[in-house]
Structures are given as structure tokens and as C-alpha cells.
């Protein structure tokens, strides 16, 4: 599997690197304002960094993440 194929379903060492890069690269997208009681579903949650940020922004809401990549789920937990 090529490195860039890991953007779809991260696996192995390349997948772990991709998940780490996604955590950094996607963070600006979560810096917008959300009400403290927002309900958020992070589809393709990658390594979970955005879930962590969203939980802080929405302490009275519900934040869930899903991903079909075992490497992503492992990192997000």
C-alpha cells in the first residue's frame, strides 16, 4: 500500500504516521465556535485529536467519533 493510500484507511506504520499527520492537519477545522451543548459526530475520526478538542468546546454536548480503520480507532482511544 502506498503512503497516500493510507489517507483512506490507515494501516501499519505508514497508517500510524498518516493518522498523526491528520491530527495536526485537521485541527484548524475544529477551531470554529460551537455551542457548549452541541451534538457532534466526527466521521473518519482519524487519531482522535479533534474529538479531544470538541469535547473541551462542547462540555455539555455529545461528541462521538467513528472510523473504519483499526489504526485510527486504536490511536483515538
Describe this structure in words.
The protein has helices spanning 12-25, 49-57, 70-76; strands spanning 39-43, 62-66. It is of the alpha+beta class.
What is the topological layout?
Layout: H1 12-25, E1 39-43, H2 49-57, E2 62-66, H3 70-76
Parallel strand pairs: 1-2
What is the CA–CA distance across the termini? 25 Å
Average pLDDT rating: 86
In spatial order, strands of the major sheet run: 1-2
**Low-pLDDT windows of residues:** none
The proportion of residues in beta strands is 5-15%
Radius of gyration: 13 Å
Query: What structural class do helix, strand and pairing data support?
Result: alpha+beta
Total count of strands: 2
Shape designation? elongated
Helix proportion: 25-40%
- SSE string: HEHEH
Q: For the report, how would you describe the main beta sheet?
A: 2 strands, parallel
Tally of separate helices: 3
Amino acid at each position: 500500500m502506498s503512503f497516500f493510500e493510507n489517507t483512506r484507511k490507515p494501516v501499519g506504520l505508514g497508517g500510524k504516521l498518516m493518522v498523526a499527520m491528520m491530527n495536526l492537519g485537521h485541527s484548524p477545522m475544529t477551531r470554529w465556535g460551537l455551542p457548549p451543548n452541541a451534538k457532534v459526530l466526527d466521521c473518519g475520526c482519524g487519531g482522535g485529536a479533534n474529538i479531544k478538542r470538541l469535547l473541551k468546546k462542547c462540555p455539555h454536548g455529545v461528541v462521538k467519533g467513528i472510523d473504519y480503520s483499526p489504526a485510527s480507532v486504536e490511536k483515538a482511544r
